Structure formats: C-alpha cells, structure tokens
Fold this protein.
Amino acid sequence: MSETLLVLLAGVAAGALNAVGGGGTFVALPALVAVGQSPVTANASSTIALVPGSVVGAWVYRRELAPVGTTSTTALTTASVIGGGMGAGLLLALPSEAFDAAVPWLLAFATVLLAFGRRVSGALSSALDRPLGMGSRTVLAGQFLLSVYGGYFGGAVGIMMLALWSIGLGLDAAAGNPMRVAQVAAVYLSATALFLVASDALSSPLVLTTMLAGAVAGGFGGAHLARRLPARLLRGAVLTTAVTMTVLYFLRG
C-alpha cells in the first residue's frame, strides 16, 4: 500500500510539473526505481505514464497554440514524433548499463538547464540584440535533435525547446509554453508506442496504471494551476525537486 501511494503521489506531482514548466521525470523516474524497477524500465514506464497527463495538458492549452516562427505546427509535431521514436529506440538498443551510468549525469545536465537555461537564453539574446532569425529548416533540425533526447531520457526537454525558440526566434517563454506542452506530448506519444511493444514496462501493470492515473490528475490540475500561481514559485518547486533528485542519485551511485 505504501509503494502504491508513493507511485500515485509521484504521478500526480510529475503530471503537474510537466504541465506547469517541465521536470516530471525528476519525480517519476526515482519513484519507480524506488519500488524495484530497473532504471531503463523505470524510464520507459514513466514516459508511458506521463503521456496522458501531457495530452490532457495540451488539450487545456489547445486554444492557445501558435506556430513557432514560420514553422507550421504540423511540421514541428512531425519532427517531434520521429525524434521521440528514435530516442526510445536508442534507449532499448543500447546496453542497460550505459543508461544506468548515465542517469545521474543526465539528471545533472537537465538540472543545470533548469537553473540557468533561461538566463543563458536571455544573455545571448541581449548580446545579439536580436533573435538569431533561424529559418524553418533550422528550427526543425533543432526540434528533431531535442526530441531524440526526449525519447531517450526526457528530463528538461521542454525547457530546451523553449530555450531554442527564444534564442533562435525571440519567442516569449509564456507565449511558447502551450506549444511546449503539445510538443512534449508528441515526443512522449511516439516513444510510448515503442515502449509498449519492446520494453518491460507492462510487466508491472499495477505500478504503471497507478502512476498513469496520478499523472492524468496532475496534468489536468497543473495546467490550470499554472495560470494562477506566480511563475517564480512554480519554477522554484521544479528546480528544488531537480536538485534533490540529482544529489540523491549521485549519492546512490
């Protein structure tokens, strides 16, 4: 019962974090490892479980979606779907030991991006005194590479998307957040299609469905909550979680 409650609460928190600014992986992955799943299986399970919450969040934002620069939503989503599937394939094809060793460093990398990504983006934009003016092909190439990373691990991939759009196109983070939620959902959907067929995630159906139910509730509530709470407070919660989980993983290793 205690493990089920842990997974449920982790699902709620992860779904809410993904809806308000990203970082759900920092909660979901450690919780699944804590109840006995291997890191690779836990990564696949967390991706599957977070899909409905991401989709619900995208549905809440559906009227606020806007193209990223001159790149159409269809083209951007296609890049996300293909990249997410390829990233998931890499996770399953590479030795599990490689992922086990990489997890603390992936968490650390994502944490640094959470902490400083927007500052770096703002500094670059200020130094250039204008966005880079990336064309549609460059935006799609960047989106594809980020989606591969998202399918393989996913931590802070939404933050990376916002940083790319901000630096390259001058897109405001608040204006780009609905599209971020939609594109993260596309990456997760693509990765999930492969994980359901080729991973061990379905070997623990109770764990998976419990986290999935929590993530749906968290994604729905988080998307609405994000419109009411101060952005600084939400960002602080995500960053605190990220730092804590990163430190714990390094100590565990």
About this structure: The two ends are 27 Å apart (CA to CA).
